[in-house]
């Protein structure tokens, strides 16, 4: 494909989803132009703070590993009803990365900007508001006030305010807005014992009938979210009083505050021809469970490797339709989960309010919903996944626990002598073969099936102790096909070259 005049891909929006997409595209050798309507970076407030393990892994691959290094890895989540602790839970450890870290979006964007500045394939232009998108068989014309720009594809990561671009594409954005407001504050204070715990309060005496969420952040800072009445406009005195009700007479510094309402919306399409939608441009969810940015970055990764495979001639354009199939399903799941959470947090009917009170007062822990924490979406039903009846998806594991590997599930991030398992997955397709498989024959046959980067590695070769095969539950005659985003595309028992080749064709969208 001939290089277009301005870039191979234009990314609209320089927030963390757009930044991630640009870095991941450049990693595949794709020339990227990032456009943002703002005059420059807005560096105020914590905004999205809680980054999940699998998103940290994506950022490491993108060259922004400092996010994981600088983030605060909290370990315990406590939930209270009034002044009584209902329960607590901790994440199950997997590999070298923490289950999540807290770090302000401002710092995350700074680290991503540093990585972008070191990448010659990426150009960022501020003060470029995109007003329209026109497509033809050979590319996309991106209309700005200054001029029109040209690329083979466009990826819209323009946030929740991308209504004009969605309308240009004929995409609806149906859903709802919740009435209650939320007041958020960043404070700096010394709160011994709170440094590594997330605390959630239902109906505390200092916010009766509503909720409060407290998260620790790096540098002795804390993020506090209060649910407040729809018509309440907090003054400085109100904010000071609310903070004092939580921390007492300890000294503190108020760093930032804001109010907002939650939305629950989803785009009708996430791919329209040569234009893909990602992040808040495609879906909005309530933040309890941290499913916003933790879903937007996997959007960016999914779009990046598929666009790169098409642009590099390794796959046909039909592969891009799987972006919509996979990430729209992920958005729908997040909407269902967060909508159920909001019905519990902000009940709208008498029946919902009565049920919530009965659950909390009765200590019915299994029914308490303060937000199921973000987890990767598993492409069990994807057209790219080869199903295997002997390896069925066992469903979502208990809160904080790990998932049993199966086709469509993201592969465990096992520590190996040469690094982490997922570090070996990011450069193309990876075939993991058992001791009874002929790895050399696999490599010869698969080299005739695809020109995409592909490596065949024996499980024993990668880890001679056998712990990798044990953690995966991999048999000696099995082959595992892993996608560039670390999801398991196929687990093939009694594997032969033809069956592995069929799984590769399928993951390229050729079946």
Automatic annotation (TrEMBL):
This is Pentachlorophenol monooxygenase/3-(3-hydroxy-phenyl)propionate hydroxylase. One of its GO terms (molecular function) is FAD binding. Gene3D superfamilies: 3.30.70.2450, 3.40.30.120, FAD/NAD(P)-binding domain (3.50.50.60). InterPro entries: FAD-bd, FAD/NAD-bd_sf, RIFMO-like. Its EC number is 1.14.13.127, 1.14.13.50. The keyword Calcium does not apply. Keywords: FAD, Flavoprotein, Monooxygenase, Oxidoreductase. Its cofactor is FAD. Residues 7-336 form the FAD-binding domain. It comes from the Bacteria.
């Amino acid at each position: 494909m001939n290089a277009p005049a301005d870039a191979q891909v234009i990314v609209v929006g320089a927030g963390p989803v757009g930044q991630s997409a640009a870095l991941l595209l450049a990693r595949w050798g794709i020339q990227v132009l990032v456009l943002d309507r703002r005059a420059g970076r807005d560096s105020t407030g914590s905004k999205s703070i809680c980054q999940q393990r699998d998103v940290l892994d994506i950022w490491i691959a993108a060259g922004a590993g400092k996010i994981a290094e600088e983030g605060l890895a909290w370990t315990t989540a406590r939930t209270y009803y009034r002044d009584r602790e209902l329960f607590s839970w901790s994440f199950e450890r997997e590999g070298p990365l923490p289950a999540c870290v807290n770090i302000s979006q401002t710092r995350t964007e700074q680290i991503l900007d540093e990585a972008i500045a070191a990448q010659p394939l990426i150009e960022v232009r501020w003060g470029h508001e995109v007003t329209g998108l026109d497509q033809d068989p050979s590319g996309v014309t991106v209309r700005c006030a200054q001029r029109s720009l040209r690329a083979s594809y466009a990826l819209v990561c323009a946030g929740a305010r991308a209504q004009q671009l969605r309308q240009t594409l004929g995409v609806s954005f149906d859903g709802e807005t919740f009435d209650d407001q939320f007041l958020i504050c960043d404070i700096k204070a010394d709160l011994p014992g709170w440094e590594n715990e997330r605390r959630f309060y239902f109906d505390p005496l200092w916010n009766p009938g509503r909720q409060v969420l407290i998260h620790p952040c790096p540098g002795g800072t804390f993020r506090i979210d209060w649910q407040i009445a729809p018509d309440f406009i907090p003054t400085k005195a109100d904010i000071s009083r609310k903070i004092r009700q939580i921390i007492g007479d300890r000294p503190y510094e108020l760093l930032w505050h804001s109010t907002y309402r939650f939305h629950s919306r989803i785009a009708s399409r996430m791919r329209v021809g040569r234009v893909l939608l990602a992040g808040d441009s495609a879906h909005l969810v309530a933040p309890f469970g941290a499913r916003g940015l933790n879903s937007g970055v996997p959007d960016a990764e999914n779009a990046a490797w598929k666009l790169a495979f098409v642009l590099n001639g390794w796959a046909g354009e039909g592969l891009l339709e799987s972006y919509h199939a996979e990430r729209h399903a992920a958005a729908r799941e997040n909407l269902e989960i967060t909508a159920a959470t909001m019905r519990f947090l902000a009940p709208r009917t008498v029946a919902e309010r009565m049920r919530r009170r009965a659950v909390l007062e009765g200590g019915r822990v299994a029914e308490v919903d303060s937000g199921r924490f973000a987890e990767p979406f598993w492409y069990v039903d994807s057209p790219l996944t080869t199903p295997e009846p002997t390896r069925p998806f066992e469903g979502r594991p208990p809160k904080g626990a790990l998932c049993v590997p199966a086709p469509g599930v993201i592969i465990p991030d096992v520590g190996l002598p040469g690094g982490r398992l997922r570090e070996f997955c990011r450069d193309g397709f990876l075939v993991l073969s058992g001791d009874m498989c002929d790895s050399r024959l696999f490599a010869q046959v698969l080299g005739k099936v695809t020109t995409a980067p592909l490596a065949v590695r024996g499980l024993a070769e990668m880890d001679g102790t056998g712990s990798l095969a044990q953690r995966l539950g991999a048999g000696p005659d099995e082959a595992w096909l892993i996608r560039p985003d670390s999801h398991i595309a196929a687990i093939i028992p009694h594997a032969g070259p033809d069956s592995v080749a069929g799984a590769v064709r399928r993951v390229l969208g050729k079946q």
